[in-house]
Amino acid sequence: MIQNEHRLFKFPKFADLIIHEDDNLIVINKPPFVASLDEREGGEVNILRLAKKYYDDAQVCHRLDKDTSGILLIAKNPDTYRSVSIEFEKRRVSKIYHAIIGGIHTFENLKVDLPILNQGNKNVSIDRTNGKAAVTIFNTLQYFKNYTLVECRPITGRMHQIRIHLATQHAAIVGDLMYKGKPIYLSQIKKRGFTISKDQDEQPIIRRFALHSKAVEFVLDGKKYAFEAQYPKDFATLLKQLEKFDS
Question: Which residues are catalytic?
Fold first, then answer.
């Protein structure tokens, strides 16, 4: 995990993150390196605080890992917060994530059904005896020479679920050091014409794990909602470099 990454990251205005807003709901495309909720350390910028500055009664309905970008639902009143929470609890929210993983993997509706135990302190493990049910469906979207873009559909919502389920398939997400995912450097894929000055350390193309919450779909009070979030710059850049140098 990159330390103090948020210091290098210029945070956009909250209003610029919004992809949908109505009387009850704000939907944002969360940037990476920003926590969804208050973390114990205290002083750090997080989505909940920014949302409350924008709208007093805002409540974040679910969470994304700090490094994960993409769709985040924010309720503007307690009733909507309750309704959305129930939809998540009852597994009626359809969620699609995109991940870039190491190696070539052909997933055709691969169902990974492995219980996850939350050990506290942001550590989880696969535990068939004590873990809680966790199911994810994986599909390959695009192949490169050494990497694969995959669609991940988590049916449940356990901590680190997509990350650990991919790791069990020897398909760790690029840059996910916690699950043995390796970073990608341009020098690895661009064999010719790559130069870097001697006094500089080469930085990975993406400075986090490559996971993006791409789309959600759900029904509230009989009305169907469907949202999609564009890739952030770092994820899009990585794909572009792979298409150019690793295809």
Answer: 65
